[in-house]
Specification:
There is one protein chain. With about 300 residues, the chain is mainly alpha-helical. The protein has 2 domains: about 5-100, Orthogonal Bundle (DNA polymerase, domain 1), CATH 1.10.150.130; about 115-295, Intergrase catalytic core (hpI Integrase, Chain A, Orthogonal Bundle), CATH 1.10.443. The protein has helices spanning about 5-15, 20-40, 45, 50-60, 70-90, 115-125, 130-140, 145-150, 190-200, 220-235, 245-255, 260-265, 275-280, 280-285, 295, and strands at about 155, 160-165, 165-170, 170-175, 185. The longest helix is centred in the N-terminal third of the chain and has 20 residues, at about 70-90.
Length: about 300
């Protein structure tokens, strides 16, 4: 039986299960890799170990962007495994051979947090709403999509917390990345001062809107029109806007004021594994008690 039937069936299942952003990724992988290589195979031929290994060896040549990251390759293998599993459930194959593959080890991502003087420079040279945006990013570690989704009512100045319960991207508003991403983050004193001043003169539903009064659907416009020019103004080399999140994590660890569990909770991780994986060299300084997070940007 044609393996395409099970690729199609797997996609239909995922259309009911996944958020739009995740489904977009799945469809891209199926259209760019799985369908072109396996679409004309029978299920048994698709499950043949030689064909699977040959596919993995050729996978970079199928990519429209060239060499793929280990994470992307693992995602492709996972999705291929899901398609083969549907063939297994239908008794077209005796076992799913994806389980026989060696697990690929992904390299730890390189993080490049901003130094204290760089944060100071960026905050001092940014203006208006973008200064508030960066202040939230540096003092909460929120993901960009979470910041763009903030409503004014999510800022609880009385209790000094920000309620994070949604994200915003090119597919509109959606639920956060994981259940643990729904969280309350403390508003530290420097950020509270900025927010009080900002909210006194602000009258929109969303905390940040574009020139037409509409919420941002992605960080692309912010990155090109505001972030890159600010880095240039501050004579700083380009690094991802996401490094504000890494800056928050490393500064929290270096402050010695918060436990790894607390930091994981503030960042929306389900456990501390991500903190240990990414910020190992900063964790030893957690034991120091000669600093506080609030002092770091002062």
């Amino acid at each position: 039986m044609s393996f395409k039937k099970y690729i199609d069936f797997y996609l239909e299942i995922k259309k009911r299960e996944l958020k739009p952003s995740s489904l977009h990724k799945y469809i891209g992988i199926l259209n760019n890799y799985i369908y072109p290589y396996f679409g004309d195979f029978t299920s048994k031929k698709a499950n043949n170990m030689h064909n699977i290994r040959n596919f993995i060896l050729q996978i970079d040549s199928l990519s429209p962007k060239g060499k793929l990251s280990t994470k992307t390759i693992k995602d492709i293998i996972m999705i291929l495994g899901g398609c083969l599993q549907e063939a297994f459930y239908d008794e077209q194959i005796e076992k799913n051979n994806i389980s026989l593959l060696r697990t690929l080890k992904a390299k730890k991502p390189n993080i490049n947090p901003f130094a204290k003087y760089e944060v100071k420079s960026l905050l001092q040279n940014s203006k208006s709403w973008f200064n508030v945006f960066l202040s939230i990013a540096f003092y909460t570690g929120m993901r960009t999509g979470e910041i763009l989704a903030l409503h004014v009512k999510d800022i609880d100045l009385n209790n000094s917390v920000i309620h994070v319960n949604k994200t915003r991207g090119k597919f509109g508003v959606g639920s956060p990345k994981t259940l643990t991403s729904i969280r309350d983050i403390p508003i530290f004193k420097p950020l509270k001062i900025v927010l009080i001043k900002y909210l006194k003169i602000y009258d929109h539903k969303y905390l940040f809107v574009n020139q037409y009064g509409n919420p941002f659907n992605s960080s692309k416009n912010i990155n090109e029109r505001h972030y890159r020019p600010l880095l240039k103004k501050c004579n700083l080399p380009y690094r991802r806007l996401y490094e504000t999140r890494h800056t928050f994590a490393t500064n929290m660890l270096e402050s010695g004021k918060f436990s790894v569990n607390q930091i994981a909770m503030f960042m929306g991780h389900s456990n501390t594994q991500m903190i240990f994986n990414r910020y190992t060299k900063y964790i030893e300084s957690e034991k120091r008690k000669d600093n506080t997070f609030i002092d770091i940007y002062d």
